[in-house]
């Protein structure tokens, strides 16, 4: 019990120290700027699409002289847009009607932000967190930590610090959505959108666990940051290919998709809370599994 208490205390101490150090680095600034750029671009594109659809509808309706026909044309245009959006949700949900229905509970602008964020996060994490262990191995600063904490606590602390960093930056990414939406969309509901963003926030942080697993594995296998960056991007690329391939293969090979982080993205939007909790547990287990594989090399490495 005492050893377990010390392990977790050391892990949290390392996580807190590494988080404070990461926030002051140029890489964290780059990650924050890239994420804010993604959030701003996706929000702006959504605003432009909505404006284009409204202008096109207004132009068609303006060309109709009869009042009744104007009302009918406006209603038909709204129904067509609603049907198109419903079809898009069905595609995003991978054909799952339950998930598509739950996706519809999110404001469209928030859903666009969350979905594209989930798509961009793996590559942003790979480009910024690849040296979470390899950087200390390269500089040999890990030797000083190893005198006071176990290597397992060191790796866990590094992982927790990166998850917390992603959660902080994901929180910042909400600002462009609220600012751009309230500035350019007349019917934008700030409170409803804020509540929906807060619902999506834990999803981004938990999904980061699944992505950090392969990245942490790569970072423990090599000593140099350059090699770690290459391996992290290579691992995620291979896992993405495996995930896509598994979608079109029969069981049991189709189950291979659950070994990739990308399989868990859609399941966070299942209407059943227990299903979402199991999906979150799957992300954490995936992170633990890949990090453990890399740890088998790291724990025997000469520091």
TrEMBL record:
Transmembrane segments: 28-47, 112-133, 154-180, 200-218, 230-253, 273-293
One Pfam family of this chain: ABC2_membrane_2
Keyword Transmembrane belongs to the record: yes
Keywords associated with the record: Membrane, Transmembrane, Transmembrane helix
Membrane found in the keyword field: yes
Domain of life: Bacteria
Name this protein carries in UniProt: ABC transporter permease subunit
């Amino acid at each position: 019990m005492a050893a377990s208490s010390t392990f977790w205390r050391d892990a949290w101490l390392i996580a807190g120290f590494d988080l404070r150090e990461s926030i002051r680095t140029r890489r964290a600034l780059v990650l924050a700027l890239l994420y804010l750029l993604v959030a701003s671009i996706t929000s702006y594109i959504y605003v432009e699409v909505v404006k284009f659809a409204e202008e096109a509808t207004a132009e068609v309706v303006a060309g109709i002289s009869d009042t009744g026909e104007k009302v009918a044309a406006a209603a038909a245009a709204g129904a067509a847009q609603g049907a198109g959006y419903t079809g898009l949700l069905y595609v995003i949900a991978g054909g799952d009607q339950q998930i598509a229905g739950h996706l519809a509970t999110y404001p469209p602008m928030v859903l666009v932000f969350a979905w594209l964020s989930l798509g961009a996060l793996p590559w942003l994490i790979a480009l910024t967190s690849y040296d979470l262990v390899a950087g200390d191995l390269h500089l040999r600063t890990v030797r000083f930590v190893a005198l006071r904490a176990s290597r397992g606590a060191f790796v866990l602390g590094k992982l927790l610090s990166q998850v917390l960093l992603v959660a902080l930056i994901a929180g910042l990414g909400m600002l462009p959505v609220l600012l751009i939406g309230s500035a350019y969309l007349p019917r934008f509901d700030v409170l409803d959108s804020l509540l929906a963003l807060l619902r999506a926030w834990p999803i981004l942080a938990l999904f980061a666990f699944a992505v950090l697993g392969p990245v942490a594995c790569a970072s423990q296998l090599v000593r140099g940051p350059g090699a770690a960056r290459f391996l992290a991007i290579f691992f995620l690329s291979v896992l993405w290919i495996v995930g896509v391939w598994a979608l079109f293969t029969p069981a049991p090979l189709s189950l291979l998709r659950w070994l990739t982080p990308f399989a868990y993205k859609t399941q966070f939007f299942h209407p059943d809370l227990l299903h979402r909790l199991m999906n979150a547990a799957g992300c954490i287990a995936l992170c633990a599994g890949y990090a453990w594989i890399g740890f088998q090399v790291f724990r025997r490495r000469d520091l």
